Amino acid sequence: MILGAVSFSPVRNREFINKVLVGTSMNEGLVFNDVNGKWLNGGFFLSPDLPSGPEDFCYTDTDILVLFSGSLYNKAELAASAGTTADMPDPALIARLFLREGIGFVNCINGDFVFYIEQFGVKEAYLVRDHVGIRPMAFSEGSDSLLFSSDITGLSRFVSGGRNIDCEYLMGWFKSVDKRRAPCSKVKKLLPGHYLHYCDGKVQTFRYWKPEKIKTDRSLQHDKMLKDLDSILRDAVRIRCDVRYTAGAHVSGGLDSAIVSTLAREEYRDQNTFPGFSWSHLAFTPADLKFDERELIKEFCKAKGITPWFSDLDRNDFLKKVDDSYYNHMYFFEDRVLETAERVGVNLIFSGWGGDDFISAGDRGIEIDLLRGLRFRTFLHRNPIRPVRRFVKYFLSDVVYPLLGILDPSTTRSLSNRARWLREPFKKSDRRAIRNFFFFSSRRQLHLRLLESYHIQERCESWSVMGHRKGIEYRYPLLDKRIIEYMLKVPSELLCKTDYFRPLLREIGKDLLPEEIRMNWSKYDEVYWTYIKELYKVSAEFLMEEVHVWISNPELRFVDFGLLTRDIKDYRENKLEPDVSLFFRTLVYLKEAHMFSVVYNWNR
User: Fold this and answer.
1) What is the tens place of the pLDDT at every residue in 147-202?
2) pLDDT tens figures, 204-231
3) Beta strand pairing status for 307-311 and 40-46?
4) How many CB atoms lie within 10 A of CB 70?
5) Inter-residue contact 331 to 308 (CB < 8 Å)
């Protein structure tokens, strides 16, 4: 994690460094290392639990300074092009490539990274973020300086003085919001696949990764597609492995985590134990349980030599994590995973996050492509006309609504229900966010818009900061840029060779996964979701007593507290009409938002 203040004038902004270090959301147990260049006051956080030293974060000589956070996964290729060896630390290799090729070298990188570059002989600097947006980075432009930080909330807090949180940032539970926004409107996230050029006191951002230019490859054959993706997937896991780390992985009954954890375990075959972390609760069993995913996970882990760890989060722990929402970004169960990983000595977690949006995508967009390509026989095989009512339902939801930009009735109803407790001026969702997630004219455009929607990056940003505070890194092989680029050129008809839902990983997984996992059609973990409902119910009933405190919080000015208070009264009298589980979740979310603002405003 890196941060800094850049100024080409004699004024040096040391105040920024000092204030962000105090109360920053990522300094727990970390050591801050100062880095000063000709134009920069800054530095990086070093964790004693990670196998990284100062040389992995910073490089400087007489000509150049590089401040770096992340990993370069194709180092051998990059080193060869730079005329050096792969054992060179990442920041030094970045400096060498930049001096040889200019900023254009970033197109050749495969990695998760952010870095800052300044050349001492010229008054300009660069800030670069990886293609997909795995590592967080934000900046703010002042009158004579550029401020940047991996800690987006810490930077926002400094710039705003701990005041006036952007309402949209706090309303993500109630409606579709622009996830690119920071808590402070003067702070901007550096977007994925972009670099920032700071020159003459002015900021310009440029997009260097343009996946929309990738064309569909009509000559591609099914067998070659599977072979290529299998090879890329295996390599995506391999290059993210590092023997200096003790690794583990997320596990579930789903395809994405199962295939990633399987391949990661193979790479770490010499590691005595390989923990698999599940969000499903260890001891809770719902009444009338129909399917217990924990049993599937246990059998899978036994077959693969993985040690399963289930969640032990109880109500008291849950309420404490709600109080800590400023630090855990409201990912309560993942915060518990990090605590468990820390306890068992894991400092690298492999995740299947991102698979749903690319290599293991479902049916979205395929039907539109089949009709556009006049492949009516394939379309009708996938969508039989009888029964007619069912055909009409899926034709509307899979073709008409996304193509014409119409929200389906269930989504419209869900958004309306969630916005119930917002005051009228705040109810409307962000149009771009709605478009990027729900509307598309092809599967290819769907992939591109999901990248743009920022829901992928928001989780990666949050987990990056959460993990670094505890000395733990994340790896997301299914978000390797080569997988994304390959999926953009795959014709949709190649995804229709079987009747499988999410066919690619089911085909690739034939020699990797047990059949119970490979052919598991459900993504619903009944134990986890039932336990979540129970936690929200008992927590919400406790939190009803605190609403009078929230009313006095000006940061929650978007809430219709009059309606909320009436609904609490109706609930206690068994007269509440809206979805009660939604009501419970809203109360917990408001507590989260309240606590976030309390810490954000603290000691301002």
Assistant:
1) 999 999 989 998 888 888 999 999 999 999 999 999 999 999 999 999 999 998 88
2) 999 999 999 999 999 999 999 999 999 9
3) unpaired
4) 23
5) no
Two tokens at 339?
């605590």
When the candidates are 3.40.50.620, 3.50.50.60, 3.40.1110.10, 3.40.30.10, the CATH number that belongs to 213-282+292-359+455-523 is: 3.40.50.620
| Confidence (pLDDT) at 579 | 82
DSSP code, position 214:
P
Q: Cα–Cα distance between 319 and 599 in angstroms, integer?
A: 16
What are the angstrom distances between the C-alpha of 232 and each of 4, 353, 359, 485, 518? 36, 17, 11, 11, 19
Q: Are 106 and 84 in contact (CB under 8 A)?
A: no
Residue 501 token pair: 């839902």
Complete edge-to-edge strand list for the sheet that includes strand 194-199: 58-60, 64-72, 111-119, 124-129, 194-199, 202-207
Q: Collapsing DSSP states into helix, strand and coil, what is residue 572?
A: helix
Peptide bond into 91 cis (omega under 30): no
Q: How far apart are CA 36 and CA 34, in angstroms?
A: 7
93 close to 75: Cβ distance less than 8 angstroms: yes
DSSP-based three-state secondary structure for 527: helix
Q: How far apart are CA 297 and CA 513, in angstroms?
A: 12
Contact 29, 50 (CB under 8 A): no
**AA letter at 187:** V
Please report, as a single letter, which amino acid is at residue 277.
Answer: F
- Alpha-helical segments (H) within 181-254: 222-238
For residue 115, give Cα distances in angstroms to 3, 96, 137: 10, 14, 9
Token readout for 80 is: 């060869």
- Cβ–Cβ < 8 Å for 7, 13: yes
Short-list 97, 71, 72, 74, CA closest to 84: 97
Place of tokens 């771009």: 432
Q: What share of the chain is helix, strand, coil (3-state, %, to 5)?
A: 50, 15, 35
Distance CA 133, CA 468 (A): 16
Tokens encoding 509: 């997984």
Domain boundaries, the chain: 2-209, 213-282+292-359+455-523, 366-441, 529-601
> Would you state the structure tokens that stand for residue 561, as one six-digit string?
């507290």
Mean pLDDT, the chain, whole residue set: 92
Helices (H) and strands (E) in the chain, counts: 26, 17
Between helices 332-344 and 315-323, what is the axis angle to 10°?
100
Quote the CATH superfamily of domain 2-209.
Aminohydrolase, N-terminal nucleophile (Ntn) domain (3.60.20.10)
Binned average pLDDT, 10 residues per bin, the chain of 604 residues: 84 62 60 88 90 94 94 94 90 95 94 95 93 96 88 90 90 93 95 94 94 95 96 97 96 93 96 96 91 93 96 93 90 95 96 94 91 94 93 94 94 94 94 94 95 94 92 96 97 91 91 88 87 94 95 96 96 87 95 93 67
